[in-house]
Amino acid sequence: MATNTVGLPRQQGRPRTRHEREQDATPKGLAWLLALTGAAGVLASWVITMDKFLLLEDPDFKPACSLNPVVSCGSVMKSDQAAAFGFPNPMLGLAAYAVVVCVGAGLLAGARYRGWFWLGLNGGTLFGVGFCSWLMVQSLYEINALCLWCCLAWVATLLMFWAVTAHNVRTGNLPSAGPVRSFFTEFGWAPPALHIGVIAMLVLTRWWDFWTG
Prior knowledge:
By secondary structure, this protein is mainly α. It has one domain (about 25-205): VKOR domain (de novo design (two linked rop proteins), Up-down Bundle). About 70% of the residues lie in helices and about 0% in strands. It is built from nine helices and two strands, in the order ββααααααααα. It has helices spanning about 20-25, 30-55, 75, 90-110, 115-145, 150-170, 180-185, 190-205, 210; strands at about 1-5, 10. The chain has a two-stranded antiparallel sheet with strand order 1-2. Strand 1 (about 1-5) and strand 2 (about 10) form a beta hairpin. Helix 2 packs antiparallel against helix 4 (about 90-110), helix 2 (about 30-55) packs antiparallel against helix 6 (about 150-170) and helix 6 (about 150-170) runs antiparallel to helix 8 (about 190-205). The longest helix is centred in the N-terminal third of the chain and has 30 residues, at about 30-55.
């Protein structure tokens, strides 16, 4: 007699339900990735929020990460784009990234989530990637400055997005053709690596003269 994950007997040979397959298919690596990237996002959001408060108190305050004309957190914090929804963007990050930390911690503690939950998380991280992409374009081509803490949040967001997407493809929450499922199973690291590489290349080429001067 086999037992399922909540300790109830399961008849030997009975086909597993979709939920049972989802429970068995959640790797510890994904749990750790969500917990760590969420923590990185919380850290970045917290530092930016505190520096924003200090900047409001003293317009001449210079954040520690304002290192040169390009890597200038203060320039980014003073921009209109830094409060896209009418309040400082990192305040949204504090809440959103904290949720991801809780999801990762729950998985490490043995929690398992339904397919609809994973799809909701995928949708949330997709919004995060879209918002971060917009902020990246604004930083590179409108504000003309980079914030290192923002860069940390960008990388954390895209890592969690691709990790959740790969999990949903592998478990069937996102219906996909066999080759797509096989790709995410074998090469799940490739999309985030390519994504980060594209961002790095954009940053490098945008200020090529500065980096090489």
